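Retro notes - structure team

What went well: the batch runner handled both jobs without manual restarts.
What didn't: labels got mixed up in the shared folder, which is why I'm recording both outputs here explicitly, each with its sequence directly above its tokens.

Job 1
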Amino acid sequence: MVLEEKENKSGAPAVEMAIKILTYLSRYRNKNRTLAEIARDLNINKSSCHRILKVLLDYRLVSYDKNTRQFSLGSFLIVLGSRASEFNDYLKIAKQHLKELAETTKQTCVLVEPIANNRLVYIAKEEPEAAVRITVSIGQSFPVTSASFGKCYLAFLPEKEAREIVKEVGIKQFTDKSITNVEEFFQSLEVIRKQGYAVSFEEHTPGVFGISAPVFDNSGSVRMVVSCIGLASSVNEETINFYADKVKTTAQKITAIFSDM
């Protein structure tokens, strides 16, 4: 799928293209891509794409396999990611609460944040010490209209903004339980706003459930989402309610961090 390139208003098109390339390669399905594939999928001129990739390669922000002629994320991004984690005090504290949530629920717990192009990305995770569990990758991104965290994030945006995003991104049917009707989708967001959390039961991935609650910044705007995800076969109404209460409490604790900043 070709991503339509919007009119550039940043004044730094090369920088924006570089960011798009790195974001593109961060998606699991795009982790190894040729120059032609990157240029095609991002709708970037091939020669411009090559020049940008060469600079990113020089700074080890991407790596290149001469045998397969494919690019992937570079090793220096690990250093930058580690530094970013160290310098973001709020994330350190938030991860402590996330760890407590994982220990209490015995489920994989994640912190999700919006990024460019109306996508969400995992920025922190805690996984239980269990033989069978859901595993996710930090940096993995997905459409904002997907899963419980997407619905939760959209539910607490101003409705006009949420509708504009849904119109632009669309609603993809991931499973036979996905909500694809726009009005039905927005009715589910209203329920989420009233109860304070979102539940997704095999709507994004077969066999997987998710429960999410919003984290707000000091202006009252939704900043990120806390989620608990696990195997759908392991839960019932009672455990769903228990997890929802714990996820909401964790989201409130992380929200309190922003109010103190």
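Job 2
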Amino acid sequence: MELVVKISSEAHCHTMRQCKPGVRESYLESKFRAFCHEMYNCKFSHYYPICACGPNPSTLHYIINSDILPETSMCLIDMGQGLHGYGADITCSYPTNGVFTEKQKQIYNLVVKANRMVLAQLKPGIKWPDMHLLAERVILEGLKDLEIVHGDVDEMIENRVGFLFMPHGLGHLLGLDVHDVGGYLHHHPPRSDKWGLKNLRFAREMEENLVLTVEPGCYFIKSVLVDRAVDTGIDIDKYVNVDKAMEYAKEVAGVRIEDDVV
């Protein structure tokens, strides 16, 4: 596990250095794969790579990887290599031209803060759903400072407003499979029925030597905030400045920062 994570981390750094406007998303995918193969004879991806730019980071499992990278856009690069049956799962986010706009920097720093806050709290005995709620709190507090959401943060957490901006679980078990088994066994806590929390792939207490991902994200998804394609029951108009959220979406459709941890 340690070796495949090291290889994947180096490949991400190499891919980031190759990123430039005007190339296809598949160019970044090919650079990642080639590095792993050339440098380590590591031939197989652990899952289908996600190389998303422009509006595409707002699609959580975007795998088309065919668009041209625009001049001012965020890239969300989710790739991990496989080795001897084990696999990594790492996500980086960065601007195509290497320079953050103010809005991109604000959202990026917010997601990094959520990631680091969770990592600082992780230890045996900690409940994983509590870590998801911590990430939501950090993101909602930051969005409130940016006047994208408004209202009491505790009330927003209770009413699941965080799901609108992070519509996936905080992370998952990792090992022989990218979403490894052991999430909801009969002697573990059951899956929640609340938005966001029910997206968690496990609800266990942390144990020593568990391998998992920590991957908070913040996305501005038009189909959720504007089109209301998902009937969440969340009072979007009460809590969200939709116009301002869509202003941010033009520059930063989504940011995710994913680390593999023990």
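One thing worth noting from job 2: The chain has a mean pLDDT of 96.
We'll revisit the folder naming next retro.
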